[in-house]
Amino acid sequence: MPAGILFLAFVLGLFFLATGGMKLVVSHQVGRQRIGWIADVPPARYRLAGWLETAGAIGLMFPTMVQAVEWLTPVAAAGLAVIMGFATVLHLRRREWVFAGGTAGLAALLVLVATSSVLA
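The chain above was modelled as a monomer; its predicted structure follows.
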């Protein structure tokens, strides 16, 4: 896998480790007071998103750190891209155009990592 893609995967992994971890540490009740979209999501789905983002982050970073199980990187990237697709739809429904653009951009970067990993 090209070094640039490995670097991108690692940086995306750090990002999702932070966002997923936040969803696991900050309660749904506190989160919805600070971030508007959380009020539209049931608490169980909010926690599930945290677990999936954290697992995806580990899947992006672990193969880079140990130089093993390289198949995990494209799988994690594809899974996170799907999650970001759903996040984009959520933000579009709320008319949060900037956030929708951000999540769509993250999805595009994740698709780049997934396809570059497979095609390399």
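The CA atoms of residues 85 and 101 lie 11 Å apart.
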